[in-house]
Structure formats: C-alpha cells, structure tokens
Amino acid sequence: MKTILVIEDKKEVRENIAEMLKLARYEVVQASDGRQGVALARSTDPDLILCDIMMPELDGYGVLHILSKDPNTARTPFIFLTAKVDQHQIRSGMNLGADDYLTKPIDDIDLLAAVELRLKKAGQMQQHVDQPGLTGFLNALRQVQACPYSTFRYAKKQVLYAEGDTPANLYYIRSGQVKHTKTDASANVFITALAGKGDFVGLPDLLQDTPYTESAEVLHDAEICLIPQAELLTLLTSHADIGAYFMRLLASEVKQRNERLLKLAYQPVRKRVVEALLLVYRKFYSLPDDPINTPLEQDISSTPFMTLSRENWAQLVGASMETVIRVLSDLRAEGMIKLSGNQITLLDIDRLLRLKH
C-alpha cells in the first residue's frame, strides 16, 4: 500500500483530502504545519507528498526546499495545494522541484488522478535511473509515454526561470523555442543563446548549484520536460556515458557562446544581423542530425520563413531596434531576404553566407 503525506494547516481541508485518499486505499499520514511535515517526511518515507503553500512558520516552498536537499526525500513526488495559482507561483514551485499543482477546492477525481499519475511516473523513474544508458535516457526524453519525468506545456513569453532563481531542474525541450537572456545595468536585454527541440536548458548553473546567471523565456509555445537536479546528478555519477555526453554539451555551449561574444564585440552591425538570421534559421528551421559538430554551411538546404519579433532580433543582434530594422530593409532591397510583418524568408543564402565571413 502506498503512503501519502498530507501537509495542510486547515484541519477540515486536511481531513477531507485524507478521507478521499483512504477510500482509494492509500495509507495517509497527516501534518498540520510545515515543520511537522518535514519531520514526518523523514521518518515515514512517504511515496508522495501533498503540501499546502500558505502555512505559518514554514510554508510549502520552505518544505520543498528542505526536502529537495535531503538525498532520502529528494526523489519523493511533491504536489502543491493552493487556493490560487498565478504564473509566478508556478515558476517558483517548478524551480524548486514541484511535480504538480492542485487548486482548492480540490475535486475528488482531479486529486486521485494526479496522485495516481505521479506515483506511476515515480515508479517509471526509478526503473529508468537504475538502468538508463545514454541511448535509453535520450529516447525516454523524446517519447512522452516512455519518459519518467514531468512534462509541461509553456506558452509564449512564459518564463522558465529568472536571473537569481535557484536551480532545481534541468529543462529538456521536446518542442518549441526558448531564448536565454541577460540584462545589463542599464536594463538593456541581450539574447545570449537560443534553444530548441532536443536542447537542454539551465545546465551550467544547475551543475554548479548556484543561482541562475541569466533568464530563460519561451519564444514560441513549448513542451518541456523537467529533470530534477537530484536525478540528474545520480545519472551523471552512475553512468559514465551520460556524464561524458553532458560534458560534451557543456564544452560545445562554452565554445559557441565565446564565438558569439567575439562577434558581438568586433563585427559591424550588418554582419551581426546576418549572423543572427543564419543562427535562427539553423537553430529552428534546418536542424542537423548532430547540432554539436555540424558546421552551419553543411545543414542549410531550404528557405522557410522565420517568425521572430523585431524586439527579439534587436536583443539577438545587440543593437537598437531601429538599427536592426534598417539593416533588414537594406537586405530586402538587395534581394537577400523577404519581409512580411514578423516573418522573414531567406531568399539568397549563399550571399548571406558570404557576407558572414
């Protein structure tokens, strides 16, 4: 019989939830505040934790933070209970490692469905961590049904994490587009990197266990899988092939960012605009089989239109919006691109490549 810990300061709500779970043949342990909840989580080793957010002394975020740092409870599925949910709440909870949210008043069916799903995924996760292998690990991430980790849908402009947030998950993009941004002292925003299908987001800061040094925001609706920090560290230390793979990703990311930094510092704006066009095209519209080792010139084969706001183009180029628009207009007049609102079509890639060098 699975054991579920319910942490809720309101007695009536706590007992109603416990009653529903007991009818579904779960063993239930109850805590009336965050401190008692942490103690019971450590002593009873529950299979899942349901925890209210707003509690006196130690709130739900504090409970999750403490338990996520304890190796014995870090893998325990954790569902927040809350009377209201906004995007900031969701991001804060997910950054700490929460698996799901349930909004009060809680529907019986929603509660039992969420509990069943998280327990099922926890069982799959344990099997996956025991014998993943690099191929199995990557295949599981790509396949929704086979993946043991929580997957969420994010809307355009939704923030995955902000500068200064504490890392708790590695983000794997199943679909969609994400931008990494950094803000300087004058409040200017720069896009430092782009991420798309098959990319991992937030790896360096997660491994260093330091606050994020940049923000990550969704450019186009995305489906993203969250790998808890504790699970990632277990994989890296237990499986040499997975550790080597992520070392390779880190090395590639450092190399690409250094190259972009040099170009932003020394290239004229026209070249930077061309670089940005080709970067977005390669990243989102002409993906090679091996994006780490495939040169840009080898993977350009077609000319679909690209959709990105002028503000994002300016942040990517590192210039004012007016300057970027002027350069884009010049490229259009020279027959290399076509502009239609926020859509850009590359008409003469060979000439653009020559301009880049």
TrEMBL record:
Give the modified residues of type 4-aspartylphosphate: D52
**Response regulatory domain: which residues?**
3-119
Q: Where is the Cyclic nucleotide-binding domain?
A: 125-242
Q: Does the keyword Transcription apply?
A: yes
**A GO term, aspect molecular function:** phosphorelay response regulator activity
List, alphabetically, the Pfam families matched.
cNMP_binding (PF00027), HTH_Crp_2 (PF13545), Response_reg (PF00072)
Q: Which GO terms describe its cellular component?
A: cytosol; protein-DNA complex
Q: Which UniProt keywords apply?
A: DNA-binding, Phosphoprotein, Plasmid, Transcription, Transcription regulation, Two-component regulatory system
What name appears for this protein in its UniProt entry?
Answer: Response regulator
